[in-house]
Structures are given as C-alpha cells and as structure tokens.
Amino acid sequence: MEASKPPWRVTASRYVVDTRHLRLREDTIELPDGTIVEGYFVRESRGFVVIFALTPDNRVVLVRQYKHGIGRVVLELPHTPGLRLLDASRYRSRFTQEDLGHSDPAPPRAGL
User: Fold this and answer.
1) 52 and 88 both lie in a single domain
2) Residue ranges making up the domain that contains 79
3) Distance from the Cα of residue 57 to its chain's centroid
4) Contact 31/37 with Cβ under 8 angstroms?
5) How far is it, in rounded angstroms, from Cα 5 to Cα 17?
6) What is the pTM of this model?
C-alpha cells in the first residue's frame, strides 16, 4: 500500500452469518477518494492448521474429503479448523498417528 494513500475506512459493520462453520460480515466502507461502498462482504476465519506430512519414503500424505459446496470428494492436505497456533505441533503428532495411521518418530515442529 502506498504511504500517501490512507486505508479504507469502515463506516458500518454487521455480521450476517455467525455460525461455527462460517462467519460473514457486511461492511460499508469509505475509499480514500471518498467513494462509499455498501455491501462489501468479508469472510472471517476462525483459524485452522494444515499438516504437510511426509511418509518415510518422502510421499505427501493426503486425505479424501467430501466437499458439500461442490458435491464431490477431493484430495487435500489434512487440516482442522479452530486450533491455536500453539497447538499445531501437538495436533500434527496426534493427527498423523491416530487419523492417518502414520508413525511420527521425529519431534513435532510447527511451521508458519
């Protein structure tokens, strides 16, 4: 962002959806040139941890996950919503062992 231009200013804000699966906010914003934009939607994340697990022979571990929005099963990296970053190492170790059936002999490390 250029230092000479001020950031957008939020003049009004309200949550239109606030569930455990989705948090959606509707803002009215004022742009640096004074233009007012109503109905600017922001999807807020409650946080999540993604695991990039490798097997001993350097294969990436993926999980099959049904995605209701597209109505299909897809392959993706294992992840979980709503964990604090401090819990990432502990989750990685437990998840690879219990949920994926892979042992994790290395000490857990969290990467950002």
Assistant:
1) yes
2) 48-99
3) 28
4) yes
5) 32
6) 0.54
pLDDT, tens digit, 9 for 90 and up, residues 38-67: 999 999 987 777 888 888 888 898 989 899
Structure tokens at 3: 């230092």
Query: Residue with structure tokens 């455990």?
Result: 20
Phi, psi of 22 (to 5 degrees): -150, 135
Q: Across the chain, how many H-helices and E-strands are there?
A: 1, 7
- Same structural domain for residues 19 and 55? no
Both structure tokens of 112: 């950002």
E-only strand ranges, 53-111: 63-67, 72-76, 79-81
Structure tokens at 107: 């000490």
Residues 54 and 83 in one domain: yes
Q: Examine the domain organization and report whether 19 and 32 are in the same domain.
A: yes
In a domain, 112, yes or no: no
